[in-house]
């Protein structure tokens, strides 16, 4: 049984910081050699070494993507039977249906195959089930609907690998299936005309991490090569030009590893998106980045990066399937007129706002349920349910829950079952996991309690009856208890290397783009700054986010911490902090500046370590210890005046009790930086000379009151000051 730290409650678990730079002589030499021989900065060389490229040749090849090749699509299991059946349908004029999923991967896969088959002159339509009405995957109802419309071949994209019974039913009524999918396979496969999935145990295709749209791309590459007789190179070039933008979006949105051929096609796809060739996609980009701009404050053209796709475009495409209908997203990407595209793009932006509002409501309810009901001492997996949560949003909220608590989470909704709470009510669930717990395998362990389940190691879906929910909750936690260690439950965040502020500039920010596109297994570089001072801190975005100005010496730089308010991070102006961050170029009104995006933040470890030492040193000095640095200990007139004025102002505002860190912060804002020992000496002298009373109510927290006096007090007569000066070592 895994016992959890109580700090998990309220999401207060401290993350463990891991530095990828091991600092060994061999690593340092590799960094120097790469930097010198291929002409990159030492920081860039360190990033390349961290990614496993330890020689100039391999580092150069990575940057230029010389080693990234598209594998032979004919190596996919069942690819030739798939091409043969589709070709027969095209040539004989059979009605074909492309059956997709309602997420971005499914939508882009649907569009890619639909457009390709249309270009061949096929009689083709597309079908995407409603998330709320039908749920995930292939259904008998959908098969009947398509069959009644004359469809004789259904090609699944990003779905279908578990549709054993449904494919058998379709065959019984004269409808064939070709399945293309990328989800984990079960021991038994559907008996379709072809099942194309790189995860098949018998599939020799070398790259297993294709998205659903990636599998579709390989399918049409194989079709093109087999049916045209052109070289593989010619076929790939043609199809990349036509569809790489869609493949890139689906691959990024489904969080596939950006290595090998995924990296290559995403790189090319982003370049295609920059050209704004696809009318619907161009309209969505325009609507996404200009919604809140006024004519006088227009943004410059957005840089098309994997991050921009993942955080701006993909959520809007996803919103269609989550709160409306995924067909909206398909219609947008298939749009042929600007008027239609603009209207659909605006509708998707509105759907995204609706999704965000619903997400926030469910998230707050979920957090409240967790704090009130979850047994942190015994249950490793958070399992929540409700009757009115929107099925299309619970997956996003599960991600937020897992991020906050560092635990696997599964959210289940019984939406649409009515108020009677019957045992047979069917709930739809969505889960997110952490490193160390494969959610697909965990759900398989619980399969006797579930009606349906499937997905990926870190994200999966399920269906469960209300009556089976307690048994499922018990079994999934039973599975987790035997598969997760204490170390797995400590959230970690990694940094590539430590920088100084002097190293952070536009040259470095521009050079980092050599590593793009970023994604899983090629993450955006994360750096550390240690012991930098907080010069300014403010809430932005209606209090949801924090903007900070950090300084080191004379250098200042702005940083944004999204989804964290100033209260969340508990830092004061003047205090020192350690931060983990990525480097961004902020483009606004034609001006480019470097901005840091904070990944994690904490009080300076070095400064915290010094606090107890400084406290002990203060009492030692009062006891007669020798003083080597008088300026750090013995206050002057301006020091006394600054402290007295700040304390007096605080008392006037009704604040009589102040932690020393707050007092030091307020001194910093009036231009007086004062160390712990000197501040304690000032307070001790004030008490001695009866200028004010400073009672330490708890460690380093003081209750203040001003003393009434009618005579001028000469602080130079202080016995404490005289004794300290006598102990100065010259």
Description:
- It is a single chain.
- Helix content is 43%, strand content 18%.
- The chain has 730 residues and is of the alpha/beta class.
- The chain folds into 5 domains: 6-66 and 493-603, OB fold (Dihydrolipoamide Acetyltransferase, E2P) (Beta Barrel), CATH 2.40.50.460; 73-239, inorganic pyrophosphatase (n-terminal core) (Alpha-Beta Complex), CATH 3.90.1640; 276-372, inorganic pyrophosphatase (n-terminal core) (Alpha-Beta Complex), CATH 3.90.1640; 374-489, Roll (Diaminopimelate Epimerase, Chain A, domain 1), CATH 3.10.310; 607-726, Arc Repressor Mutant, subunit A, CATH 1.10.10.
- Strands 3-2-4-5-6 form a 5-stranded parallel β-sheet, with helices on both faces. The protein has a 5-stranded mixed β-sheet with strand order 7-8-9-11-10, sandwiched between helices. It has a 5-stranded mixed barrel with strand order 14-15-16-18-17.
- Helix 18 links the parallel strand 13 and strand 14 (527-540).
- The longest helix has 36 residues, at 338-373.
- The protein is elongated, with a radius of gyration of 31 Å.
- Residues 1-7 and 292-298 have low confidence and may be disordered.
- Helical residue percent? 40-55%
What would you call the structural class?
A: alpha/beta
Q: Largest beta sheet, briefly? A: 5 strands, parallel
H/I helix tally: 24
Our measurement of the CA-to-CA distance between the termini, rounded to an integer number of angstroms, reads 62 Å
The CATH architecture of the largest domain comes to Beta Barrel
Tell me the fraction of residues in β-strands, as a range: 15-25%
Strand order across the largest sheet: 3-2-4-5-6
Write down the domain tally.
5
Provide the CATH top-level class of the largest domain: Mainly Beta
Mean pLDDT: 90
Task: Supply Rg.
Answer: 31 Å
CATH fold descriptor of the largest domain: OB fold (Dihydrolipoamide Acetyltransferase, E2P)
**Tertiary shape:** elongated
């Amino acid at each position: 049984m895994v016992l959890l730290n109580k700090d998990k409650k309220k999401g207060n678990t401290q993350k463990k910081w891991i530095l990828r730079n091991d600092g060994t002589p061999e690593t340092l030499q590799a960094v120097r050699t790469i930097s010198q021989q291929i002409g990159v900065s030492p920081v860039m060389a360190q990033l390349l070494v961290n990614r496993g490229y330890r020689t100039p040749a391999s580092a150069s090849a990575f940057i230029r993507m010389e080693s990234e090749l598209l594998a032979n699509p004919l190596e996919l299991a069942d690819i030739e039977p798939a091409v043969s059946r589709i070709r027969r349908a095209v040539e004989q004029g059979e009605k074909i249906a492309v059956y997709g999923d309602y997420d971005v991967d499914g939508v882009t896969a649907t569009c890619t195959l639909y457009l390709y088959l249309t270009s061949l002159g096929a009689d083709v339509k597309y079908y995407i089930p409603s998330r709320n009405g039908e749920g995930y995957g292939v259904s008998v109802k959908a098969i009947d609907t398509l069959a009644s419309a004359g469809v004789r071949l259904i090609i699944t994209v990003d779905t279908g690998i578990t549709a054993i019974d449904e494919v058998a039913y379709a065959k019984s009524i004269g409808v064939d299936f070709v399945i293309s999918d990328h989800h984990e396979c079960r021991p038994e496969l559907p008996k379709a005309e072809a099942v194309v999935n790189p995860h098949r145990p018998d599939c020799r295709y070398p790259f297993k991490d294709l998205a659903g749209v990636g599998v579709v791309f390989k399918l049409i590459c194989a079709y093109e090569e087999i049916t045209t007789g052109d070289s593989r190179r010619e076929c790939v070039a043609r199809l990349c030009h036509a569809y790489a933008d869609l493949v890139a979006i689906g691959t990024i949105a489904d969080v596939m590893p950006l290595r090998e051929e995924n990296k290559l096609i995403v790189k090319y796809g982003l370049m295609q998106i920059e050209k704004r060739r696809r009318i619907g996609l161009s309209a969505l980009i325009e609507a996404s980045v200009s919604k809140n701009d006024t004519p006088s404050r227009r943004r410059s053209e957005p840089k098309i990066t994997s991050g921009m796709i993942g955080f701006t475009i993909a959520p809007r495409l996803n919103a269609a399937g989550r709160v409306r209908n995924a067909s909206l997203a398909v219609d947008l990407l298939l749009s042929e007129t600007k008027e239609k595209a603009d209207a659909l793009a605006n509708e998707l932006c509105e759907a995204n706002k609706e999704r965000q509002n619903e997400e926030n409501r469910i998230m707050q309810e979920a957090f409240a349920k967790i704090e009130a009901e979850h047994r942190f001492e015994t249950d490793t997996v958070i399992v929540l349910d409700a009757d009115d949560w929107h099925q299309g949003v619970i997956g996003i909220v599960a991600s937020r829950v897992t991020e906050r608590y560092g635990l696997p989470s599964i959210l289940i909704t019984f939406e649409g079952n009515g108020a009677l709470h019957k045992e047979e009510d069917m709930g739809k669930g969505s889960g997110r996991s952490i490193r160390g717990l494969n959610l697909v395998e965990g759900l398989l362990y619980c399969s006797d309690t579930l009606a349906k389940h499937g997905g990926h190691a870190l994200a999966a879906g399920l269906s469960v009856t209300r009556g089976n929910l307690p048994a499922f909750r018990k079994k999934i936690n039973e599975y987790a208890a035997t598969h997760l260690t204490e170390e797995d439950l400590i959230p970690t965040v990694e940094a590539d290397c430590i920088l100084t502020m002097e190293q952070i500039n536009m040259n470095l920010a521009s050079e980092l783009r050599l590593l793009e596109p970023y994604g899983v297994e090629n993450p955006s570089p994360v750096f550390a700054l240690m012991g930098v001072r907080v010069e300014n801190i403010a809430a932005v975005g209606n209090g949801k986010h924090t903007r900070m100005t950090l300084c080191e010496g004379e250098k200042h730089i702005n940083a944004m911490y999204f989804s964290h308010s100033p209260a969340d991070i508990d830092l004061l102006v003047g205090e020192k902090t350690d931060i983990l961050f990525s480097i961004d170029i902020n483009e606004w009104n034609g001006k480019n500046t470097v901005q840091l995006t904070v990944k994690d933040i904490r009080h300076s470890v070095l400064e915290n370590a010094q606090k107890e030492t400084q406290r002990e040193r203060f009492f030692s000095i009062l006891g007669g210890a020798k003083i080597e640095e008088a300026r750090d200990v013995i206050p002057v007139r301006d020091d006394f005046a600054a402290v007295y004025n700040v304390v007096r102002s605080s008392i006037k505002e009704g604040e009589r009790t102040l932690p020393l860190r707050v007092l030091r912060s307020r001194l910093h804002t009036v231009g007086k930086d004062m160390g712990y020992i000197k501040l304690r000496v000032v307070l001790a002298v004030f008490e001695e000379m009866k200028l004010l009373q400073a009672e330490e109510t708890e460690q380093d927290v003081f209750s203040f009151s001003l003393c009434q006096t009618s005579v001028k007090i000469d602080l130079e007569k202080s016995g404490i000051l005289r004794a300290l000066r006598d102990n100065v070592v010259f």
